[in-house]
Amino acid sequence: MITKEAVDTSEDDKKDAFVLKKVSKNRCRVCVSFKKWMQNQNNSLSDKEKTPNLDNIDLTNCPPDSELLGRSTWTFLHTMAANYPKSATVKEQAEMQEFLRVFAKHYPCSYCAQDFREWMSQEKNQAKVGGREELSLWICQAHNEVNRKLGKPIFDCLKWKERWRDGWKDGSCG
């Protein structure tokens, strides 16, 4: 079980997160969407230097912005949970607890990481790592909490198996 002490942030992390929040709009691509980041960069450029149309930029080989990082992260976490053992051994449970602790400490968007650590530190949000079903539902709850904060739709966690393991019942996943 991840305890509050295990996920608390150091004073340095708190300072870094505060500073990052203040500067991220101008400097941290991984903390804001690429479009917003570029718009903020353009605000400090002369008219000649400004990017004409951000909608036509191919970002395939560029560092991720917060939206791509978030989508990729959730895809990884959901897929990992969907392939976790049905009934995890004590060792596997300890490893998953440690993974989640380290993940929440080193996630590239520091204020996102801090928010996740704070969420996990609440007793009702302790990581549930006993097995596949339990972990998948917990990851879905965590994802829905982020979606709620971002004003995005909430996913029906009872459909985790269709979405992340078996594919939709209508056969659309092949």
TrEMBL record:
Domain ERV/ALR sulfhydryl oxidase residues, every copy: 62-164
Catalysed conversion reaction: 2 R'C(R)SH + O2 = R'C(R)S-S(R)CR' + H2O2
Gene3D superfamilies assigned: ERV/ALR sulfhydryl oxidase domain (1.20.120.310)
UniProt GO cellular component terms: mitochondrial intermembrane space
Tagged with keyword Transmembrane: no
Major site of localization recorded for this protein: mitochondrion
PANTHER family named among the record's database cross-references: ALR/ERV (PTHR12645), FAD-LINKED SULFHYDRYL OXIDASE ALR (PTHR12645:SF0)
Protein name according to UniProt: Sulfhydryl oxidase
Organism encoding this protein: Pneumocystis wakefieldiae
